[in-house]
Amino acid sequence: MAETGMPVSGAEAHFRALESLYRAAPINRFFPSRLEIVEEGVARIRFRIDDTVHHAAGAAHGTTYFKMLDDAAFYAANSLVSDRFLLTTAFNLLFTRPLKSGEVTAEGRWVSGRRRVMVADARLLDANGEEAARGTGTFMRSRIPLASLPGYVAAQP
């Protein structure tokens, strides 16, 4: 059900099911975060950086940057595909400054492609809205039906 009390269907149901899929991913036990599919082709992930993800020099390790950028871009792209799970086939990452602690937002946006291969960009923004990293991913439709994944739970009409 939507916040209005009306049943959710179509694209909205797909977006909520993708958010459920994200929450169900075991990797997110290590990276507490919240995904929001804002609209078709746009995804936002909110998370917090603290010393549990720091490298030896006291800033967030690159794995954190990659994971959040890849996820934001992936979900932006998969918001356009309601039948199949996408796979990341390539991801280019540019680090622009270190993140030490605080709230961070990964924003993903679909750029091009709708058939087999899709491209999406993402960027990491600190609590002040300053960019810390950006990336571009290429995603391909897999043979895995979204409906076959236990976390993909569509809202009931």
Automatic annotation (TrEMBL):
Keyword match Cell inner membrane: no
Superkingdom, taxonomy of origin: Bacteria
InterPro entries listed in its UniProt record: HotDog_dom_sf, PAAI_dom, Thioestr_dom
Pfam family, one: 4HBT
Keyword Hydrolase included in the entry's annotation: yes
Thioesterase domain segment(s): 58-132
Gene Ontology molecular function terms on file: acyl-CoA hydrolase activity
Keywords attached to this entry: Hydrolase
NCBIfam families: unchar_dom_1
Protein name, entry field: PaaI family thioesterase
Protein's organism: Alterirhizorhabdus solaris
